[in-house]
Amino acid sequence: MPNQFRVHAALFFVAVIYAANYSLSKDVMPVYMTPFGIVTLRVLGASSFFALIKYFIAPQDKIIGWADNRRSIICGVLGIGLNQLLFFSGLNLTSPISASLLQTIAPIVVVIASAILLSEKITLPRVLGIGVGAAGAASLILSRNAQAAIYPHATLGNLFILANATVFGLYLVLVQPLMRKYHAFTVLARVFLVGAVVAVPFGWREALHANYASFPLKIWLEIGYMVVFLTILAYLLNNWALKYASPALLGVYIYLQPVLAVLIAVSLGKDHLTWGKAGQAVLIFLGVWLVSQKPKAAPVAAVPEDAVID
């Protein structure tokens, strides 16, 4: 068991990595590179890295059987391909704070998908949470504020982010059986390979024809950040920390991401926090908290001392 400080440090670092991306990506898009071009560089870099690591760490581990192979393909399409295309398309059109808040809808999607796919029980608090969270998300998506001139297509961008959170929530439910059955790098190598097959056809032209000679050092560093930190390092730290962190602790750090994203976006002048967004954030966080409440276990009846157990 590692030092708990290391587990907290890993989860906090992952939260910072994700939070900073909302603002740093705005420097790159759309002036220097299109969203699909960024996705192409990211998935190609990550898929190559994970394939290489898998070759050395788990060369004999393979996903076998039609059911598991089909699941891995679906996970790659949802969790990597569509997830990345929708996320960067949405972030290109909306503000960093709006995008970070809508991302927290993913846990609600996980609960709904678990109820449908895994027959998990949905309690009244969870139903209320789904309703409250949906109300907060709808209010955020449809709201128009002083930044409408900066983000004229923010509503469409918010819808893309909501779709991104939805497919990522489905991915988290579907990938869990694979993570329990196979080595983590075996699963990551497969899903990123599938994701690359899905995403690259949309962005290879943009990635190939970008005017790289005009990129200042700052833009190169931010693109490198998205490939190395946002994809590779974040996945590595998350997979390591999840071996030792409780779901409750992980939830705390998931909720921390938009808070950090707000602080970073405001400090860099990329966005402004308004009372309206603060209220929408409260609704979304309340909804996620209600959904995260697990059903109480049914009480176990006491067995009489003279009872005979076969």
From TrEMBL:
UniProt entry keywords in alphabetical sequence: Cell membrane, Membrane, Transmembrane, Transmembrane helix
Q: How does it sit in the membrane?
A: Multi-pass membrane protein
Describe the location of the EamA domain by residue ranges.
Answer: 10-140, 156-292
Tell me where in or outside the cell this protein is found: Cell membrane
List the transmembrane segments: 29-53, 73-91, 97-117, 124-142, 154-175, 187-204, 219-237, 249-268, 274-291
Pfam families reported for this sequence: EamA (PF00892)
Q: What is its main location?
A: membrane
Question: In its keyword annotation, does this UniProt entry include Heme?
Answer: no
Task: Answer whether the UniProt record assigns the keyword Transmembrane to this protein.
Answer: yes
**Which InterPro entries does this UniProt record tie to the protein?**
AA-Vitamin_Transporters (IPR050638), EamA_dom (IPR000620), EmrE-like (IPR037185)
What name is this protein filed under? DMT family transporter
Question: Which species does the entry assign this protein to?
Answer: Hymenobacter negativus
